[in-house]
Amino acid sequence: MNLFSLARSHCMVGLSLLVAASLWQIDATRAAQGDVTEGQRRGAALRRPTPESERGRSQFLKSCAFCHGPEANGGAAGPNLLRSTVVRHDENGNLVGQVVREGRPEKGMPPIQLTSDQISDVAAFLRYRVAVSDGRSAPRPGADYSAAKLLVGNAAAGKAFFNGAGGCSACHSATGDLAGIAQKYPAVDLQTRFLYPTEPYLTATVTDSSGKHYAGKIRLQTNYEIALEDSDGWYRSWPLDNVKVEVKDPLLAHRKLLSQFTDSEMHDMLSYLETLK
Q1: Element (H, E) at 206
Q2: Per-residue pLDDT tens digits for 178-208
Q3: Which CATH architecture does the domain made up of 203-249 adopt?
Q4: Which of 7, 91, 173, 174 keeps 20 to 30 A from 67, CA to CA?
């Protein structure tokens, strides 16, 4: 290497170090001044892989990548999961798990028998991929997203739907569990919560051949077996053909309603819920 090339190399290295130091100083200054929000810190943390997301990546490559692509952004037969509302509103596999276990036969997706831990890991991988994708795109609406852009429905029509065709009043009350809900959540979060309410686990009661009952959270349910975790933390499993199972899904009505909602009914419902202050 001649002297000119050596000097140029040293110059480039020095410039790289100077740029890196400058960027670090900018980040540090912003953090000190409070310009880096908690949401930005959380987003940065989500964009770092974890042991769970790495296990999930491995499982996804085995079970899902053939259709959805190795990075979950779509393949020859499956859609881009990074744009999926189910994936984006999932919490630790509660929504993803249902789709994985039940499949989408009408769309050509068969059920996939994964354990709860495997589903949780896959969900962690998808959460990581969404965070990475969003980090390269424009920011998503936050809690301060303009309510005027969301509250375009008719509150009176929403109330009529709540008490009538929607069947919401069978489980909820505007003066009971929903009283003041519009004060607890901004409109963008309220919309998410009524469209995609979350429960960590379904529950079930299993009756064995002797007539003994067992109740608890469903930790595994396939075409062949079911496993529960009872209130004491015991894990029990049975072949399905040896027991009777009664599944309790408190969100079943919500799941059915999601596929029946029209756009206007969704807007009307949100406008009505926003009046519950």
Answers
A1: strand 203-207
A2: 999 988 888 878 888 888 777 666 789 999 9
A3: Roll (2.30)
A4: 91
